[in-house]
Specification:
Elements lengths: L2 E6 L4 E7 L2 E6 L6 E2 L11 E5 L2 E5 L5 E2 L1 E7 L5 E8 L25 E5 L2 E8 L4 E7 L8 E5 L7 E4 L5 E7 L1 E7 L13 E4 L10 E13 L2 E10 L5 E7 L7 E6 L5 E7 L5 E8 L5 E11 L2 E4 L8 E2 L31 E3 L7 E2 L7 E4 L14 E4 L4 E9 L8 E7 L4 E8 L2 E8 L6 E8 L3 E9 L6 E7 L6 E2 L4 E2 L11 E7 L7 E11 L1
Antiparallel strand pairs: 1-2, 2-3, 4-26, 5-6, 6-8, 7-27, 8-9, 10-11, 11-12, 12-13, 14-15, 15-16, 16-17, 18-19, 19-20, 20-21, 22-23, 23-24, 24-25, 27-30, 28-29, 29-41, 30-40, 31-36, 31-41, 32-33, 32-40, 33-34, 34-35, 36-37, 37-38, 37-39
Family: Belongs to the glycosyl hydrolase 43 family.
Keywords: Glycosidase, Hydrolase, Signal
Protein name: Beta-xylosidase
Length: 527
């Protein structure tokens, strides 16, 4: 049966009948146009293309797997996940959370998505592996994806297919460089020479910057090349810089294109009707880096971003028809024979151990087994996550804890470096509900309540309104009456994880392996 959820997205208030694998929406109110942010959740470093009447967007999820999410829209407003470029990037100690290592804040970064001669391409790079990756497919929604990898790791690279069929990559920070790739994009073209095309791409934003120009995305419009970058002047905000040239090798002329609300980093997209937009994102506290669309007009051969230099709240685009459909969704863990084990909305925190999780061992439940000993939640394997979202969101679950072993810890988390969770701890046959906060930078148990039954309901709430960034935790013994536990968590977007907070289901052992817990569902709601 569908579950009724009340959700307030940035564009409208919804009453939804939510079923597994997506949303079927019944609108209680709907504005006539879309509103910014387009997605009130962590979807940073977007790169976008239009193929016919369909738009495709790639983004960054770093240490999460599967990685490099691919999203689709028919109107630039309503997006859904259609796949990922890779299942796992590498089987290293960092990606596998082995020997105290991790890939938090690293993994794969800003991607570039392109379409050329019937093939889709996505490039990315990884500081963790020191390599640049290019994925390609004929079918962006079903795959499969072919992978090419080569060294070194080219920072914030942008793929570009020129009119003559030659393919290039621009990369760098501050000083921007041009490379030519071979025809199959498996590596650099033999004999190619790296060329500096802009010595100081930061210059248009002034001499005093704390972040030099990066995030390159290259386009060609009406015979001119346009290169988008961002910088961050000291004491100022993230700033969009655009350079223009009539030859790829330059000379390049640059100017500040937008400086408002810190909305920056992205590129250009046009509609079939000929309207232009810049897709950008905004650092917005603990919820993460959230996407915006900014209208673009043209003057004297230059893109002019915004309305009177400002990012508008309303857009002349269709209103959203659902709260991030296909990007975040409730899951009852009920599967038909042809259903995937996990919908695309789910990502693992680092590489999972597939033998230690299942949705088939007990029908209608997610089972998480322990397979090794850990001492802290963020180093535990097989934490299954979804994005939180704003302005307010919550997640609720119920766990069968009857098969926990001594020292096991399982529950529902708000995952970031300064994490918090509500869960169950078993100690010498006794079980307790606990709330743990890492707001100080180290995990501290803030509350403990004895538990004398095999099932417990857990809930985590997020309030991102006006960057309030507060998290709250609750438990229930019957699913009806909820009791707050512990202290409020002041959530903080930190660079060690470089990601907005995530809801996470977890189970790990501290004394003996072999225990397991069963999650009956994860129900996500908001207002």
């Amino acid at each position: 049966m569908p579950m009724i959820i009340f959700l307030k997205h940035s564009c409208c208030l919804f009453v939804l009948a939510v079923t597994y694998m997506g949303f079927s929406c019944r609108l209680s109110a709907q504005p006539s146009s879309a509103r910014n942010p387009i997605i009130y959740a962590d979807v940073p470093d977007a790169s976008m293309i239009r193929v016919g009447g369909s738009y495709y967007m790639s983004s960054t999820t770093m240490h999460m797997v599967p990685g490099v999410p691919i999203m689709k829209s028919d109107d630039l407003v309503n997006w859904k996940l259609v796949g990922y470029a890779y299942d796992t990037l590498a089987n290293t100690d960092e990606f596998s959370l082995v020997d105290g290592k991790n890939a938090y804040g690293q993994g794969s970064w800003a991607s570039s998505i392109r379409y050329y001669n019937g093939t889709y391409y996505v490039s990315t790079f990884s500081q963790t592996t020191g390599k640049t990756y290019i994925f390609s497919t004929k079918d962006i929604e079903s795959g499969p994806w072919k992978r090419s990898a080569f060294s070194p790791s080219y920072h914030d690279n942008s793929l570009f297919f020129d009119d003559d069929g030659r393919v290039y990559m621009i990369y760098g920070g501050g000083t921007l460089r041009l490379l030519e790739l071979n025809d199959d994009l498996s590596g650099l073209k033999p004999g190619t020479t790296e060329r500096v095309i802009i010595e100081n791409a930061t210059a248009p934003s002034g001499p005093n910057v704390m972040l030099p120009a990066e995030g390159s995305q290259l386009f060609k419009v009406n015979g001119f090349y346009y290169l988008f970058n961002i910088s961050w002047p000291r004491g100022g905000m993230r700033t969009v810089i655009v350079h223009r040239a009539d030859k790829l090798t330059g000379p390049w002329e640059g100017r500040v294109a937008l400086q408002d609300k810190g909305v920056a980093q992205g590129g250009l997209i046009n509609t079939p009707e000929g309207d232009w937009y810049a897709y950008l994102f905004r650092d917005y506290g603990a919820v993460g880096r959230i996407p915006y669309l900014v209208p673009v007009t043209w003057a004297d051969g230059w893109p002019v971003l915004g309305k009177d230099g400002k990012v508008p709240d309303e857009l002349e685009l269709p209103a959203c028809s659902g709260p991030m459909p296909g990007i975040v969704a409730s899951d009852e863990f009920e599967r038909r024979n042809d259903d995937p084990a996990l919908p695309l909305v789910w990502q693992w925190n680092h590489n999972p151990v597939d033998s230690l999780w299942s949705i088939s061992e007990r029908s209608g439940y997610l089972r998480l087994r322990t397979g090794r000993l850990d001492t802290v939640f963020v180093q535990a394997r097989n934490t299954l996550t979804q994005r939180t979202f704003g302005p307010e969101s919550a997640a609720e679950t119920v766990i069968d804890i009857s098969q926990m072993k001594d020292g096991d810890v399982a529950g529902l988390a708000l995952l970031q470096h300064k994490f918090g969770f509500v869960g169950v701890v078993e100690a010498e046959g006794d079980r307790s509900i606990v709330m743990v906060s890492a707001e100080s930078g180290e995990p501290v148990e803030m509350a403990r309540v004895p538990l004398n039954q095999p099932m417990v309901y857990l809930r985590a709430e997020c309030d991102f309104t006006d960057r309030r960034d507060m998290g709250y935790f609750y438990y229930s013994l019957d699913g009806d009456r909820w009791t707050p536990i512990g202290t409020a968590l002041h959530m903080e977007y930190t660079l060690p994880h470089f990601m907005g907070y995530r809801f996470g289901l977890f189970n790990y052992a501290t004394k003996v392996v072999g225990g397991f817990v069963d999650f009956d569902y994860l129900r996500i709601s908001g207002k």
